[in-house]
Amino acid sequence: MDGLTARDRSTFNAGIEAARQMALTAAVTLEVRDDARQVRQQAAVAALQGLAAGLHAAFIAPLAETGPMHRVMAAIAADPAGSGAVECLDCKGWLAWARDSSNGHLHAQCETEGCLKLMQ
Question: 94 in the Ramachandran plot: left (φ > 0), alpha (ψ -120 to 50) or beta?
């Protein structure tokens, strides 16, 4: 995913999560059908659950394996909102963030004076 802007990455991450959620929803829908015990339905449920697990393993889990700052920035990048707040890693205060609408850069600053301030 090199070469993508922060907005592109955010859109991609949101799409991956939406696909994962749709696969899980479809699996549950099949599990509650009257014919859920039929082999073809059980196979479809297993395939959809496998798809959701694969999307998680390939795209979501690697983000969780990085350091705390990467996880916070990945969570912010994945958020479709233009701004928000998360817990500060250093002081546990609030780290307010905003996405620049012109270039997609993320700007974040902790509410605690002299604490974190960054741009990605």
Answer: beta
pLDDT in tens, 48-91: 999 998 888 888 776 555 667 777 777 777 778 889 898 888 88
Token pair recorded at residue 48: 């959809």
Residue 56 DSSP label = I
- In angstroms, rounded to a whole number, what is the distance separating the alpha carbons of residues 74 and 100? 16
Torsion of CA 53, 57, 63, 68, to 10 degrees: 80
Q: How confident is the model at residue 101 (pLDDT cuts 50, 70, 90)?
A: confident
Give CA angle at 18 (15, 19), nearest 5°: 85
Please, what is the average pLDDT of the chain?
Answer: 84
Retrieve residue 65's tokens.
Answer: 């394996």
Check if the beta carbon of residue 14 is closer than 8 Å to that of residue 81. no
Domain ranges of the chain: 6-64, 68-119
Using an 8 Å Cβ cutoff, are 118 and 90 in contact? no
What element of type H or E holds 98? strand 94-99
